[in-house]
Every structure is written in structure tokens, then in C-alpha cells.
Specification:
- The protein is of the alpha/beta class and 246 residues long.
- It is built from seven helices and eight strands; from the N terminus they run αβββαβαβααβαββα.
- The chain has a five-stranded parallel beta sheet with strand order 5-4-6-7-8, sandwiched between helices. Strands 1-3-2 form a three-stranded antiparallel beta sheet.
- Helix 3 runs parallel beside helix 7 and helix 4 runs antiparallel to helix 5.
- The longest helix is centred in the last third of the chain and has 26 residues.
């Protein structure tokens, strides 16, 4: 885990504890499900549930945002990962707003650690799109039955890799909602030493994450608030990068 810095906020969005409280970011899991490594981020226990210390959440969130700003200002690529069904559409919308890559379906094993194979899959998506375009123009050598089969292949590839279809290199960082649920993504990132930023609930292991953000990773309001701050930071960083290039 990265050391927490306490300098001024600079170019990142302001984070208020009241916002986190209203979003329910402080509500953790049942005590029976906790990871003891999250102990230092827990404020107290109420009725068998852990309550996160939002004062520490803010410090770690601000530290993570500073890192994200630095990545974005240098034109780095960031990958959003969240395969929870109730959060998929939310994360896709945020990723599109920020102009970043995303994975919201089941994590394709080897997406990062076997990136050369991944790139072949992305090339195949473009090849199939070219075939469909020629077919629609009446210039294809394929018959309708073959096109139907190719369409099935295309749909499967797009479902797995649609959110990273234009990713030409490994991401500079990965933003993860629920690292317990996304343990494969965390593992691949750590193998390749790709920095991770993750919303860590009380059942997570923060030591596996470069920039952990202790918060509720199930509630849409909590995830949306934190992700909106991440997105705003990315946009500010990108704008700063463009300004520096002029």
C-alpha cells in the first residue's frame, strides 16, 4: 500500500465527509465477514456490522485522486473494473464519460498477463467488422449462413473485450470496485506491477492494493460518489496534459 500524503488538494476535486455519509460509504459488512487487515480503517461495530472511519477514507481517497490526476495528466491509460450486475451500467457510463477502458462482464483470464493474445482478439473484432461492412455493401465472399456464424463469434468477443477494444498497450493503472470480487484482475495487475486503486470494503485485503479506498463497495450511491470523483479527476488531469502540450 502506498504511503498517505497530506499536502494540499491541488487540482483534485474537494471531498467532504458529509457527502460520504449521505452516500452510505461508511457502512461495512457483517463482522463475521471482515478481513482483519482492514481493522485500522474501522471506526466501530454496530449491531454486528462494521462502520468505516471516513476520516481515514478521505485521506486515502485524496491520495488516490492525486495519483490518478498524475496518470491522466501524462496521458496514461486507466482501466475500470466492476463485474457486479447492479453496477455495470453505472460504471460503463462513468468510463465513457472519462474516456477510459472498462471491463464489466466476467474478467477474461489473461487479459493483462497474456496481453499478446488479447491484442489478437482485438484485431479479430476489427477484422469481423470489416467483413460485415463488405457484406452489407454486397461485396463479400461470404454467404448469409457464414455471416450468421461470424456474427455469433463477434458478439462473444465484443461482450468480453468491447470495453477494451481500442486498448493498444497495458493500462497505466486499474480502478477496481470490490477487489474481493475482482481477485483475478487484482492478481494480474500485481503480477505485472500495474498500480491499482480500489474501493475496499471491510472484507477486503488492502495490502493487495496500491491505493486502497476504504468504503462501501456494494451501494450504488457510495460507488457512484467515489467513481464520480475519480472521473472528474481524470478529466482535469487530461485537460492539464493538453494545456501543457500547447
Amino acid at each position: 500500500m502506498q504511503e498517505v500524503k497530506e499536502e494540499g488538494l491541488g487540482n483534485i476535486p474537494n471531498v467532504k465527509i458529509e457527502q460520504l455519509l449521505e452516500a452510505g460509504a461508511h457502512f461495512g459488512h457483517k463482522k463475521s465477514k471482515w478481513n482483519p487487515k482492514m481493522a485500522k480503517y474501522i471506526f466501530r461495530e454496530i449491531n454486528g456490522y462494521h462502520i468505516l472511519d471516513l476520516r481515514k477514507t478521505i485521506l486515502l481517497l485524496e491520495n488516490a485522486l492525486r495519483f490518478i490526476y498524475d496518470i491522466a495528466s501524462k496521458n496514461g491509460n486507466i482501466l475500470f473494473v466492476c463485474t457486479k450486475k447492479n453496477l455495470r451500467d453505472t460504471i460503463v457510463n462513468f468510463a465513457n464519460e472519462a474516456g477510459v477502458f472498462y471491463v464489466v462482464e466476467r474478467w477474461p483470464g489473461g487479459l493483462l498477463t497474456n496481453f499478446e493474445t488479447t491484442k489478437q482478439r482485438l484485431i479479430r473484432i476489427k477484422e469481423l467488422e470489416g467483413i460485415f461492412e463488405e457484406y452489407n455493401k454486397g461485396k463479400s465472399v461470404y454467404v448469409k449462413k457464414e455471416i450468421v456464424e461470424l456474427q455469433k463469434e463477434y458478439d462473444k468477443l465484443l461482450k468480453k473485450f468491447g470495453g477494451v477494444r481500442s486498448m493498444e498497450d497495458l493500462p497505466s493503472a486499474i480502478y477496481i470496485i470490490d477487489p474481493v470480487n475482482e481477485k483475478l484482475a487484482v492478481h494480474e495487475a500485481n503480477v505485472l506491477k500495474i498500480p491499482t486503486i480500489a474501493i475496499c470494503d471491510t472484507n477486503a485485503d488492502p495490502e493487495l492494493i496500491t491505493y486502497p479506498i476504504p468504503a462501501n463497495d456494494d451501494a450504488i450511491k457510495s460507488v457512484s460518489l467515489i467513481t464520480s470523483l475519480v472521473v472528474e479527476t481524470i478529466k482535469r488531469g487530461k485537460q492539464a496534459g493538453l494545456t501543457w502540450q500547447i
